[in-house]
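Good morning,

Attaching, inline, the backbone tokens for the sequence recovery test we're adding to the shared suite. The designed sequence is right after.
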């Protein structure tokens, strides 16, 4: 297609494009490797760019990225100079223009969406032109053939082959029965820290598990328990994404739980005695040896989490568990101004990550404050804050409740109820475990 089309005398129409968006995509990629991952996840192709120079720059960035080399203005400029393309794209200064055009590299995926959508519209226009030409040169008896060719043209643009993701019941039934009858290959369920919960609520790859509770109820305690049990006790590689707490706060909780040293002792409030030092030393050996990776960032997006997982997968280090603390404070890729829509998009994005990588994702969630006005403060599924999509997307929803949170003198002090409010593959139930908040951990009642 030429840069401009004429559809009436004196009227020139430009094909759908947004050069500013193209610049923001490339500028973001030049600034951040995470942005490159976001763009590749779309995925965006070189021929999606309208400006040929942008396609050339995009190819150079991907060339460097595929070799695990940095892709910035200097390295991309050197590669383009070596290939003789630097002057064709506007020289080195244009690469810096691209960088300066970007409000933030975190939005590269958003602009890539725009570029992709406009590329589809351009290709639809091209396909439409070819369909019109076929309709004029074809005999009436070939009308059915033209319809088939026209459909093929549209499918080539949209990628709609009407078979993507389709399988047969016969294939799936055979796979299911083979796995069921092969006792040498047990189902790969996630090892969880509480015995009764493990028996009632099996968690496997692709599951989105929501752990929800009011502020201070114990969400972070439970999620760190999942991390410790999977990584330290069972040697399962785990990715912990912390948005609410910094690395020092996470370490305080992990060491308090693992060493059974009061949490406030690790915050500098009191001197640590010799006995506690020995406990901390033993815990350090277990924690340092554990396969735990962390993203500690208050502005992390799902795009960055996905990019991190993709890079880990490429290095054959894909975690067997992802834990995110917590959902409602994740940064949306695109804010709409409507929290219900934004939180719903985050929830669906987490579910897609679990399914795409076939790993369980445990995510914390906040509950609505309205439950504090009720006589019975045990939470229910509808108490999930800001979006019903969370409960819909999740395979499993666990609501936390401690009676002594509301009544200090409760006879059930030190107990934490795990209210399984949704369980696609099993029963709904209430499981009571012990809660040792001073150690930042929960455990089976038999161990209290």
């Amino acid at each position: 297609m030429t840069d401009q089309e004429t559809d009436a005398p004196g009227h020139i129409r430009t094909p759908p494009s947004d050069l500013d968006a193209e610049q923001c995509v490339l500028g973001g990629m030049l600034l951040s490797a995470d942005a490159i991952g976001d763009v590749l996840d779309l995925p965006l192709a070189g021929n999606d760019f309208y400006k040929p120079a942008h396609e050339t720059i995009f190819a150079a960035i991907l060339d460097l990225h595929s070799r695990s080399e940095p892709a910035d203005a200097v390295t991309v400029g050197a590669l383009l100079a070596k290939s003789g393309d630097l002057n064709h794209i506007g020289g080195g200064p244009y690469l810096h223009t691209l960088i300066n055009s970007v409000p933030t590299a975190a939005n590269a995926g958003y602009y890539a969406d725009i570029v992709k959508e406009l590329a589809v519209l351009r290709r639809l226009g091209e396909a439409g032109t070819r369909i019109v030409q076929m309709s004029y040169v074809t005999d009436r008896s070939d009308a059915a053939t033209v319809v088939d060719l026209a459909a093929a043209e549209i499918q080539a643009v949209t990628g709609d082959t009407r078979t993507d993701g389709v399988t047969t019941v016969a294939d799936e039934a055979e796979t299911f029965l083979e796995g069921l009858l092969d006792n040498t290959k047990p189902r790969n369920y996630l090892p969880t820290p509480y015995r009764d919960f493990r028996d009632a609520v099996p968690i496997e790859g692709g599951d989105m598990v929501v752990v929800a509770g009011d502020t201070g109820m114990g969400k972070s305690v439970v999620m760190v328990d999942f991390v410790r049990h999977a990584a330290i006790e069972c040697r399962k590689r785990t990715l912990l994404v912390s948005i609410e707490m910094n690395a020092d706060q996470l370490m305080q909780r992990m060491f308090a739980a693992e060493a059974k040293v009061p949490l406030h002792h690790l915050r500098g409030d009191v001197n640590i005695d010799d006995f506690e030092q020995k406990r901390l030393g033993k815990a350090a050996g277990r924690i340092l040896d554990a396969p735990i990776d962390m993203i500690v960032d208050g502005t992390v997006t799902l795009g960055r989490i996905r990019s991190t997982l993709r890079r880990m997968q490429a290095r054959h280090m894909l975690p067997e568990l992802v834990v995110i603390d917590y959902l409602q404070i994740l940064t949306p890729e695109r804010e709409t101004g409507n929290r219900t829509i934004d939180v719903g998009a985050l929830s669906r994005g987490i579910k897609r990550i679990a399914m795409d990588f076939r790993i369980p994702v445990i995510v914390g969630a906040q509950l609505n404050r309205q439950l504090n006005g009720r006589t019975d403060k045990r939470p229910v599924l509808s108490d999930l804050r800001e979006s019903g999509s969370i409960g819909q997307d999740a395979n499993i929803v666990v609501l936390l409740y401690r009676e002594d949170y509301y009544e200090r003198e409760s006879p059930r002090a030190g107990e934490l109820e795990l209210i399984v409010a949704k369980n696609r593959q099993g029963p709904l139930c209430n499981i009571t475990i012990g809660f040792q908040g001073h150690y930042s951990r929960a455990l089976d009642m038999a161990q209290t």
